[in-house]
Amino acid sequence: RIVWMLEELGIDYQIKHYKRDSKTMLAPAELKAIHPLGKSPAITDGETAIVESGAIIEYLARRYGGEAWQPPADDSRWLEERYWLHYAEGSLMPPLVLRLVFEKVKTSPMPFFVKPVAKGISDKTNEMFIGPMIKTHLDFVESHLAKNTWFLGDKLSAADIQMSFPLEASVARGIVGRN
């Protein structure tokens, strides 16, 4: 999302890769030097460091995009954009992550006699709770996009870029089209 936003804005940038610990997936010291939590993506703009995709996209839109990327506060699109920027990570991603975690439980190493119980709990949780929640969210997004070309209407916005990840993740994980 961040690279896409940088490209749309025509900003020169350099990508720096940080190798996480292969077993724990914890951030290396170099990334923690940018932000104590070792979060990524992270950008630095001069002395300013920004983490969290929504905050980065909002920062880039405000700093470099002008009104084309940052509707004025008195424009109804301003609040709509804020909504989708925060909805992507605050509402849509949590059930997708829950689903990922419960699917991982089924394939994690465990004693053979526990495996059927873990699989049963995972399947039932996905069926009764997580799946319906994801369906509700995806139906909501689909209903909005059925009336709009993009999240804010007829033009690409920061909201579209932010919303791209959970939607692409849903497609990649085979969630779209499931009940």
What does it look like?
The chain has 179 residues and is mainly α. The protein is built from six helices and two strands. The protein has a two-stranded antiparallel sheet. A hairpin with a 2-residue loop joins β1 and β2. α1 runs parallel beside α3, α4 runs antiparallel to α5 and α4 runs parallel beside α6. It is flat and about 60 Å long. The two termini are 27 Å apart. The model has no long low-confidence stretch (mean pLDDT 93).
Summarize the structure.
The protein is mostly helical and 179 residues long. Helices cover 61% and strands 4% of the residues.
User: How many DSSP E strands?
Assistant: 2
The total count of helices amounts to 6
Helix content: 55-70%
Q: If you compute it from the alpha carbons, what radius of gyration comes out, rounded to the nearest whole angstrom? A: 19 Å
Structural class: mainly alpha
What is the chain-wise order of helices and strands? Answer: HHEEHHHH
Unreliably modeled segments: none
Summed over residues and divided by their number, the pLDDT gives a mean of 93
Write the layout of secondary structure elements.
Layout (H helix, E strand, L loop, with lengths): L1 H8 L19 H6 L7 E4 L2 E4 L1 H17 L6 H32 L7 H32 L11 H15 L7
Antiparallel strand pairs: 1-2
Helix pairs in contact: 1-3, 4-5, 4-6
Q: Can you tag this structure with a few keywords?
A:
179 residues; mainly alpha; 2 strands; flat
